[in-house]
Amino acid sequence: MDNTKVVIFQDFARRAKARIEERKKRRTKQLYVSDIDMTLTIHGISDEEYAEITEMNGLSDIEKDKYLIYYVCPELQEASRIMVEEGALTESGRYKISDIFRSVDRVALCREILTLSGLTGETSVMDVVEKSERISERDEVKNS
Hints:
- This protein is mostly helical.
- The chain is 59% helix and 8% strand.
- The protein has a two-stranded antiparallel ribbon with strand order 1-2.
- The chain starts with a helix and ends with a helix.
């Protein structure tokens, strides 16, 4: 292999390694939910965590959404711990603390979690021709 290709692959490997390390970092975000007048902290999840939650047996899709919200929110986990101690929730039903949210808020929270996790949102994948056209358009704007 010629030296130019080796340099290109070494550069790609370096960028890939940095990107993999960046993706391992757990991203967090705070969201205010006016219906409950609270700010909640959520964090992103890994592909493996997402697969584990979506493959949970015995739960409907709505129940899986409720579990996802509970799973990524320390405030809900702490409140559910107190509710279990008080007998308001069962140990296996801790995630049902998410019943405090209206359906529209539950969906919005799940979208935020999936976006934070990199599972939804804007993609960086594009057709090579489209990429060339974008570069050409950008150069035209610079030259105007």
